Amino acid sequence: GPPANAEFGKNWYQRINLSLSPASHQERIHILIAFFDNIYISTPPVNHLKKQVMEKLKDRWKIIYSKPLPLKWLPDEEDAVLWAWNNLQKVQQEKAGNIGGLYMSLSTPGLTTWLTPLSHSERNLALRVAIDLWDDAPDTKRLFLLNLNKAWNQQKLRQSRTDKKALNTYLKNETKTRLDFMAERSGVRISDMLETLINDHYRKTCGGE
To answer: Is the CB of residue 85 less than 8 Å from the CB of residue 126?
Structure first.
């Protein structure tokens, strides 16, 4: 059971006061060892109970490891990872706020609510772990990942259009057919083909770049 001076609502990790911001793989290993070493279980046999927990963790890890990697589409860039982390943290913090209120839940609120990665590499790892261990309904998790991917694609699309303007015009059918043929032959999009033609003609007639 918990120590006599333990605060209500704290888990064992918090009671032992272990770091929430491990800075390396080696530090994580030390924390794991310290975590298991410092858990006090009054009911014997202690070693047997801890071994059971570790076996269950290994079984759970095997299941997680067999699944596809989460966020394969997210680039390993600081801004991108921070953006995804903040989005996941927002969802998990909202859930944590509901626990104990009108909505009761037996699942944990999520690792983003108490992990504090201090560097890009650690945040990148923490993000993947937080998703792997997100103890929520599968549909909730799946929907979040779909929406996150959609939001990322929309954001990248907006960024790619910052120096572009929409062009709404009409072409004769024959001209449009020729444009389609030229684009296909060059292996580019119609918009890129049109831009190339305009810029080439501009350089030839106006001498500009």
So the answer is: yes
